[in-house]
């Protein structure tokens, strides 16, 4: 019964059927990650009064496109006339910013809130909805994550979702700069919207 309720989000199938599709599309370790993101997203959704089924579906599908070959993304960028600037990046950016189109077309998910949560889960944007914030954060702090600062990230996020977004955005930008990596322009927009005045401690 519980699984059938998920179908109301416009999907023609149950959670179990969706899980099978993800299992087929992902390596086992990524599939396990996706299940943990779903659980973390649902906890954050309960805390922040966000629809649990949206959090479940968005958590499950957020990395659906992660294992796709580059050619699929390049073709989609051209086919859908997306910003050609995107061609200078790679899977880390594409699997969300472009991958949501595969989620829509192949998993038949039409809920725009869920699709946007997939779209922005890596780069964020200026006005992230609570569901978008939840997927962005669940991906970062799910129990399998292990990096310096992850416990602090969890503590902050469970206390204050928006401050969690600020924390992750700052860490990501600092990491990219420290490693001389390119910064996707949207990440800077996210930084400017979420980090100053967020109440985060300064280092
Ligand atoms: Fe991802
Ligand atoms: Fe992920």
Distance between the termini: 49 Å
Relative strand content: under 5%
Shape: globular
Radius of gyration based on Cα positions: 16 Å
Give the SSE string. Answer: HHHHHHHHHHHH
Please identify the structural class as seen in this structure: mainly alpha
**What is the helix tally?**
12
Tell me which ligands are bound.
fe (ii) ion
| Largest sheet report | none
Mean pLDDT: 94
Number of E-type strands? 0
The residue fraction in helices comes out at 55-70%
Enzyme class: hydrolase
Domain HD: 30-144
Pfam families: HD
InterPro entries: Diverse_Catalytic_Enzymes, HD/PDEase_dom, HD_domain, YqeK
Question: What labels would you give this structure?
Answer:
203 residues; mainly alpha; 12 helices; globular; binds fe (ii) ion
Structure description:
With 203 residues, this protein is mainly alpha-helical. Helix content is 63%, strand content 0%. It is built from 12 helices and no strands. The protein has helices spanning 2-5, 15-25, 28-47, 52-61, 70-79, 91-97, 99-106, 112-119, 130-141, 150-159, 161-178, 185-194. Helix 11 crosses helix 12. It is globular, with a radius of gyration of 16 Å. The mean pLDDT is 94. Bound molecules: fe (ii) ion (2 copies).
Topology:
Layout: H1 2-5, H2 15-25, H3 28-47, H4 52-61, H5 70-79, H6 91-97, H7 99-106, H8 112-119, H9 130-141, H10 150-159, H11 161-178, H12 185-194
Helix pairs in contact: 3-4, 3-9, 4-8, 4-9, 7-8, 8-9, 9-11, 10-11, 11-12
The site of one fe (ii) ion has 5 residues, from helix 3.
